[in-house]
């Protein structure tokens, strides 16, 4: 809230980069990478490429697409009849609910994979490409230019790569039977259950 209020009240922060920050979506990080790419690699064209209309369009797309894609996944999951009510995890994710269904869930699987690819993998590749181009351009500049580019890009890149990898592995592992992949973890879980069930 402090960030949002500061950006709204301070007129000098009414720039595309800070407008994107107001949204605080990880999809927005992809749009922010494009903004930094244009600002650093094409500085003379920045004001013609990042107009108010384009900023509003990019911001709207970055907010609406995730809402629609997640809404589509949730609506498909809600329609499924469930055969069980046990979730093998602490968190209730969409795929764990789908796995309890009695009917074929191929459509849910396809839509879920499509959403994962478009919101995580493609966005990550776009960010990596943008920052690679930025760093190549800054490499030819002075030490001060390189320092400013690294100061701007590295925290953003680390945050986005961490987020993307975490989401990707979480969405991938939830679809796999971890008992078959790692029998030691499964055995440890059973031993743990036996220990806790013993009276002391």
From TrEMBL:
Membrane topology qualifier: Multi-pass membrane protein
One Pfam entry name: 7tm_4
Keywords, comma-separated and alphabetical: Membrane, Transducer, Transmembrane, Transmembrane helix
PROSITE patterns: G_PROTEIN_RECEP_F1_2
GO biological process: G protein-coupled receptor signaling pathway
Chain ranges passing through the membrane: 17-34, 55-78, 110-131
Cellular component, GO annotation: membrane
Subcellular location as annotated: Membrane
Stretches assigned to the G-protein coupled receptors family 1 profile domain: 25-161
One term of GO molecular function: olfactory receptor activity
PANTHER family: G_PROTEIN_RECEP_F1_2 DOMAIN-CONTAINING PROTEIN, ODORANT RECEPTOR-RELATED
Protein name, UniProt field: G-protein coupled receptors family 1 profile domain-containing protein
Organism (species): Neogobius melanostomus (round goby)
């Amino acid at each position: 809230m402090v960030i949002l209020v500061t950006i709204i009240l301070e007129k000098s922060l009414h720039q595309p980069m800070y407008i994107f920050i107001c949204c605080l979506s990880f999809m927005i990080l992809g749009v922010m990478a494009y903004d930094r790419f244009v600002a650093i690699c094409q500085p003379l064209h920045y004001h013609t490429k990042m107009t108010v209309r384009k900023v509003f369009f990019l911001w709207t797309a970055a907010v609406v697409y995730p809402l629609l894609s997640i809404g589509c996944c949730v609506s498909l999951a809600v329609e499924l009849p469930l055969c069980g009510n046990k979730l093998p995890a602490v968190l209730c994710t969409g795929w764990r609910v789908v796995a309890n269904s009695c009917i074929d869930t191929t459509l849910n699987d396809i839509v879920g994979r499509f959403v994962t690819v478009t919101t995580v993998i493609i966005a990550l590749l776009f960010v990596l490409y943008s920052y690679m181009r930025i760093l190549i351009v800054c490499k030819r500049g002075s030490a001060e230019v390189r320092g400013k580019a690294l100061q701007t890009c590295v925290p953003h890149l680390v945050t986005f790569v961490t987020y993307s990898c975490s989401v990707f592995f979480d969405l991938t592992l939830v679809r796999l039977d971890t008992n078959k992949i790692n029998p030691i973890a499964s055995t440890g879980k059973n031993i743990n259950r036996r220990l806790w069930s013993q009276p002391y």
